[in-house]
Amino acid sequence: MSERPDVLIVGAGFAGMYAIHRFRSQGLSVLALEAGSDVGGTWYWNRYPGARCDVPSLEYSYGFSEDLQREWDWPEVFSAQPDILRYANHVADRFDLRRDIRFNTRVTAVTYQEAANLWRLETEAGETLEARYCVMATGCLSVPNTPDIPGADDFEGCVLHTGLWPAEPVDLTGKRVAIIGTGSSGVQAIPELAREAAHLTVFQRTPVYTVPANRKAMRAAVQEEFRANYRQIREMQQNNAGGVSGFRPVKSTSRTERAADRTLNLPSAVPMAPEQGGMGILDLTEEQRRTLVRERGLGVLLAFRDAYTDPEANEAANTAFRDGIRDRVRDPETAEALCPTTYGLGCKRQVLDRDYYDTFNRDNVTLVDVRRSPIEAITRTGLRTGDAEYDFDVLVYATGFDAMTGALLRANITGRNGIRLADKWAHGPIMYLGLALSDCPNLFTVTGPGSPSVLCNMLVAIEQHVNWIGDCIDYMRRHGHERIEAQPDAEAEWVQHVNAVAEGTMYTTPSCNSWYLGANIPGKPRIFMPYVGGYPRYRERCEQVAAAGYEGFRFG
Ligand code: NA7
C-alpha cells in the first residue's frame, strides 16, 4: 500500500470498489479509506430483515468485466441484501481490491493544500494522508437519519436503525418490537419483524404507495439468455432514462414462462423508458380501475404512464390505489390510516414490498398514526404519543438518511482559500455535473448531487462517473496538467439546468416531501437534488464536455 498514492478514494461501496479497479488499470496508485470493516457500502450497513434491492440484479451488477458477468449466478430476480453483499465480496476477492483498502477508517476532514496541490485527508484515528487526486465515493444514502425525539436516550430497551443493522443476528422472538418509519426500509422490514416478534407496533407519519415486488427465483435459462446478450443489454442501459435495459428473455423459455417474463423487470424503482402510446388511466371508468387492481394487483397502476405526467390521471391512480388498500386491509380504520392522501404516486421513489398490506391483517401488528397523534417523547419503557403510551422491548428506527449531500458535508471538505463546502452549500448543493466543485481542484464526487444517481440504476451511474473521472485524470497526465477545476459559471449554469428540468414534474409538486428534495431532514434546503433529465441525456453531456477539452473546467 503506497503512503502517498495518486488517488485517495473515500468509501469502498460499489463506487469505491470500481474506482480502485479502474484507476489501477490505468497505472495509478490508489488507496481507499472505508469506515466499515469490509466492502459493500449500502449493502454492508443495511442488513435489516427484508433488505432487498429494488432494481433487478442482472442489471444492478457491474458491466465492466465480461468474465465477472459470466461467472456470477444470482439466486433471485431482485436479490436480497446477503446475496448482494456476497457479490461485493466476490468482486473484492476476484480483483484483489482489499490490498488497497484501509477498513475501519472514517475520514473526518478533506482539505486542499494549495501550495503543494495535494488533498490532505484526516481520519478519526488522527492519521493524515495526502494525494494529488481525491475521489469521494461516499454514496447517496449513507448517513442514517435518527430524528431528534425528546427522551431518546432514556429508553432502556434495545435500539436499532435499519441503516446500521448489526452484522450478528438479532433475535426478536418473543419481543415487543416498535418501528418508526414507513419508507422503503420500514416497508421491507415490517413483514419480517411481524413474523418474528411477539408484537409489532408500527409508528407511521406518512403512508406510502407500495406495490408487490417481483418474487421470482432466477431461472437458469433467463440468466443464460442475459449472459448471451449482455453486450446488447449494457448498450440498452446506456440509452435508457433509468439505466435499466428492460431486456426480456425470449428464446430459452416456454410460452407460459415467456408471458410471465414480460414483467420480469417490472416493477422497478427507477423509471423505465415510458411506454409509447397505450391506454391512459382516464380511459377507464372508476369501476374498471377497481376491477383491474383486484385482478392484477396494485402494481398494475404503475403501468399507466399518464399518471406520472397529468395531475388528473395521477389523482385517478391515487384513488384506485386507496381503493385497493381498502380492499386488502380488513380493519377499516387501519386501512384508512394506510391510505396516502397528502401526495401522489410518483412524488417519492417507488416502494416495493412483500406482504406489506397483509401484515396489517395479523393479530400481532398495530398501526399507530402519528400524524393524528404525534410522538411526544421516548420513555424508559417505550414511547408516548399525544393520546397514548406504548411499551416495548426493541425500538427500530427506519427513518431514512440524510441523502445525497449528507456524506459529503460530513467529510468536512475545505477547498481553495479555506472555502468550506458547508458554507458553499448552505442554500443547497452547487456543483458541476454532480462530478466536481469549483474551489476544489482535483476532487471528484461519484454520483454527486446534480447527476442522475438515485434516479438511475446506481451501478450504471457509478461506472459512468468512475470512467469519466479516470479518463479525465488520464487526459491531464497526457497533457501535463496538474490541476483541474470546475468553473463557477459552468457550475451555476448546470445547477440552473438541473432545477429547470425538475420543475413541473411529479417530484417537485408543492405537496411532495421526499428525500430527493431534502424534505425529510429538518432545516435542510428544499432543492431537488438528482438530475431528472434522464441518464442518456446526462451521459451525452458529460461526453461532450470531455470531447470539447473539458468544457466548463479550467486546467492549471
Ligand atoms: P425514507 O424513505 O426517508 O423513509 C423514512 C421514514 O421514516 C418515513 O416514513 C418518514 O416519515 C419516517 N420518519 C422520519 N422521521 C420521522 C419522525 N421524526 N417521526 C416519525 N416518522 C419519521 O427512508 P428509507 O430508509 O425507508 O428509504 C430510503 C431509500 O433507501 C429508499 O428510497 C430506497 O432508495 C433505499 P415522513 O415520510 O417523513 O413523514
What's the layout of helices and strands?
Layout: E1 7-10, H1 14-25, E2 30-33, H2 42-45, H3 66-71, H4 81-94, E3 101-102, E4 107-113, E5 118-123, E6 128-131, E7 133-136, E8 158-161, E9 176-180, H5 184-196, E10 199-204, E11 210-212, H6 220-228, H7 230-238, H8 255-261, H9 286-296, H10 311-328, H11 332-338, E12 351-353, H12 356-359, E13 365-369, E14 375-378, E15 382-385, E16 389-391, E17 394-397, H13 406-410, E18 413-414, H14 421-424, E19 443-445, H15 458-479, E20 484-486, H16 488-502, H17 535-547, E21 553-555
Parallel strand pairs: 1-2, 1-7, 2-3, 4-18, 7-19, 8-17, 9-10, 9-17, 10-13, 11-12
Antiparallel strand pairs: 4-5, 5-6, 14-15, 15-16, 20-21
Ligand NA7 binds next to helix 5.
Strand order of the largest sheet: 3-2-1-7-19
Distance between the termini: 29 Å
Can you tell me the CATH class of the largest domain? Alpha Beta
- How many β strands by DSSP? 21
- Portion of residues in beta strands equals 5-15%
Mean pLDDT: 94
The CATH homologous superfamily of the largest domain: FAD/NAD(P)-binding domain
SS field, number of helical segments: 17
**Structure classification:** alpha/beta
